[in-house]
């Protein structure tokens, strides 16, 4: 027996280790991780993030699709920068595309053709870049709609809502900048329209245009400047805002849909490691593969069809990308009599309102809405459980009304195409869309709110009387009625968990000493808006109502069972 051993050690000689010893690779990785932690202290933060619990619901993937498509867009953009020449110097094209050989064009357009026809895989990368950019804007927009309709913008997530709105705005600018870089006839027409919008800025419009374009249109500076904005400034801002968004999501509790066991104080889901990380990693490749498949099969932005940009030419039926359609549609719908001249200055109000003010007003309203709703409702609580859209009918109706207005303006950007394709008068289409601009949102608001209130009434009926079973029973008097199956406690919770609106306490116009209070008009406005939000609200079923309904149901079943004649059963 050695000097260091003990007699009792023999009793554990056959014990199996609780876990297998670490392999050489794991020990090496652990050593590297320890080395990094000794110098950065990152282990605590990384451990917190790895244990962070995220709820599991398909709608949360919308934000992931936006993030993954942005990553794909940036990776493919790096590839394209190796061959794209962002200058407007004139060259004669001698590349592989025969129809344009010998044509004078800018270096930007020639390099775009070279990427498409002479660089191996270049056309596929161009298509992936374009499709991923469109998917990024689509996914980001739908993600924000989910946040709005479920009330995920409420305290403490107002900052994240603002970040999302700014991300959406920057995505529009980034898309327009990238769309303009090839310098083909279609993108050049868009730049020409943008220059006209800039000229409409009162007093300083011509100076701003001269500074941006480096002189008269088209100049030789706008493409290099847009290129710098497109690959450096805006991507940097997007990455910074996305990082801030993810950090805030990690610091705050993640929102979750209501259900049994889910409260404002917990999160029911899976930790980042290993479950969520594995699912997120796999989902990234699914998104990447889907974009690659679409890009391989569906052509987009075939710049060689349009030819190089020439200031004295334009494309027939030129349309902006869908995400820039609503300001262009507003411009087309505004009447020409709004333009007038005073003191030698032309006030082009159709352009000023449609092209310059619609976007700031649209995003300004989005940013302000969480604070307006909080002020109207007086709700200062933290919210980590999401709303069912039907339980907030006014908010849902306002969102659908805004979407309807957006849709009308977007379709108005194609009024000329609709007139050609359907052989209709463009003037009649424009007049109809002008009417729908004002009438459409009102009808959408009314219809949506009615639908939400009807769904709430249906929820009350289901909670109080159970689900329809399809089982028809004949009573002793020959009458027939359907047997309803009551909900279990877990299923019922989703229908009754939301809080009803509390009555708004408005102070009187005078205090206890009879002195008039300030802000009387503001208090009255708040009271009216509160009534607009909640006057016709349908409150959830209370425990007392549920008990009374069950008691009545049990009595009815007992009476029917006692009176039912023998031989009469379900049919």
Structure summary:
The protein is mainly alpha-helical and 571 residues long. The chain has helices at residues 24-40, 43-50, 61-81, 107-117, 122-149, 158-180, 185-199, 205-213, 222-251, 272-297, 303-306, 325-333, 349-377, 393-412, 415-421, 426-465, 489-496, 520-534, 543-563; strands at 53-54, 90-92, 104-106, 270-271, 339-342, 345-348, 467-474, 480-485. A two-stranded antiparallel ribbon has the order 1-4. The chain has a two-stranded antiparallel ribbon with strand order 2-3. Strands 5-6 form a two-stranded antiparallel sheet.
Q: Describe the oligomeric state of these chains in a short phrase.
A: single chain
CATH superfamily of the domain at 49-316: Cytochrome Bc1 Complex, Chain C
Low-confidence stretches: 565-571
Strand content: 5-15%
SSE class? mainly alpha
CATH class of the domain at 49-316: Mainly Alpha
Number of strands: 8
* Helix content class: 55-70%
SSE string, helices as H and strands as E:
HHEHEEHHHHHHEHHHEEHHHHEEHHH
Descriptive tags:
two-stranded antiparallel sheet; mainly alpha; globular; 571 residues; 8 strands; 6% strand; membrane; 60% helix; Cyt_b/b6_N; transmembrane; Cytochrome Bc1 Complex, Chain C; Di-haem_cyt_TM
Strand and helix map with partners:
Blueprint: H1 24-40, H2 43-50, E1 53-54, H3 61-81, E2 90-92, E3 104-106, H4 107-117, H5 122-149, H6 158-180, H7 185-199, H8 205-213, H9 222-251, E4 270-271, H10 272-297, H11 303-306, H12 325-333, E5 339-342, E6 345-348, H13 349-377, H14 393-412, H15 415-421, H16 426-465, E7 467-474, E8 480-485, H17 489-496, H18 520-534, H19 543-563
Antiparallel strand pairs: 1-4, 2-3, 5-6, 7-8
């Amino acid at each position: 027996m050695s000097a260091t051993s003990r007699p009792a050690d023999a009793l554990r000689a056959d014990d199996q280790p609780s876990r297998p010893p670490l392999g050489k690779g794991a020990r090496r990785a652990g050593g590297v991780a320890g080395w990094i932690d000794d110098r950065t202290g990152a282990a605590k933060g990384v451990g917190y993030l790895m244990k962070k619990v995220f709820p599991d619901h398909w709608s949360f993937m919308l934000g992931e699709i936006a993030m993954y498509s942005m990553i794909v867009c940036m990776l493919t953009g790096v590839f394209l920068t190796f061959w794209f020449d962002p200058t407007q110097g004139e060259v004669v094209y001698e590349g592989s595309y025969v129809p344009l050989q010998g044509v004078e064009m800018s270096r930007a357009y020639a390099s775009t053709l070279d990427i498409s026809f002479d660089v191996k895989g270049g056309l596929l990368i161009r298509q992936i870049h374009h499709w991923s950019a469109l998917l990024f804007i689509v996914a980001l927009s739908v993600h924000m709609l989910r946040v709005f309709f479920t009330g995920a913008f409420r305290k403490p997530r107002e900052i994240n809502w603002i970040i999302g709105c700014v991300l959406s705005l920057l995505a529009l600018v980034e898309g327009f900048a990238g769309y303009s870089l090839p310098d083909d006839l279609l993108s050049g027409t868009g730049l020409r329209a943008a220059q006209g919008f800039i000229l409409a800025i009162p007093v300083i419009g011509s100076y701003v245009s001269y500074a941006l374009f480096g002189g008269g249109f088209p100049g030789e500076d706008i493409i290099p400047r847009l290129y710098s904005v497109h690959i450096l400034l805006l991507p940097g801002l997007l990455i910074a805002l996305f990082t801030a968004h993810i950090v805030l999501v990690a610091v705050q509790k993640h929102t979750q849909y209501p259900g049994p066991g889910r409260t404002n104080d917990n999160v029911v889901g899976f930790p980042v490691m290993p479950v969520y990380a594995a699912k997120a990693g796999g989902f990234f490749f699914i998104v990447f593969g889907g974009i690659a498949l679409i890009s391989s099969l569906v052509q987009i932005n075939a710049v060689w069809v349009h030819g190089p940009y020439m200031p004295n030419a334009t494309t027939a039926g030129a349309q902006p990308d869908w995400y820039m359609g609503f300001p262009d549609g507003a411009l087309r719908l505004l009447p020409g009599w709004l333009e007038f001249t005073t003191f030698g200055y032309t006030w082009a109000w159709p352009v000023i309102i449609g092209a310059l003010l619609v976007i700031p007003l649209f995003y300004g309203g989005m940013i302000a809405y969480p604070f307006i709703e909080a002020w109207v409702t007086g709700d200062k609580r933290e919210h980590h459980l999401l709303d069912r859209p039907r339980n907030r009918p006014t908010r849902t109706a306002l969102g659908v009304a805004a979407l309807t207005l957006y849709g009308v303006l977007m379709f108005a950007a194609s009024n000329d195409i609709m007139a050609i394709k359907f052989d209709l008068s463009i003037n009649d289409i424009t007049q109809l869309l002008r009417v729908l601009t004002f009438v459409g949102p009102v009808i959408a608001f009314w219809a949506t709110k009615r639908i939400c209130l009807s769904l709430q009434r249906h929820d009350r009926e289901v909670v109080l009387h159970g689900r329809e079973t399809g089982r028809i029973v004949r009573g002793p008097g020959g009458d027939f009625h359907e047997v309803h199956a009551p909900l279990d406690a877990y299923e019922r919770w989703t229908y009754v968990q939301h809080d009803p609106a509390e009555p708004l306490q408005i102070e009187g116009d005078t205090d206890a000493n009879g002195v008039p209070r300030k802000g009387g008009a503001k208090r009255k406005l708040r009271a009216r808006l509160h009534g607009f939000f909640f006057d016709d609200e349908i409150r959830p079923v209370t425990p007392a109502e549920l008990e009374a309904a069950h008691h009545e149901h049990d009595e009815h079943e007992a009476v029917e069972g006692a009176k039912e004649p023998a031989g009469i059963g379900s049919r």
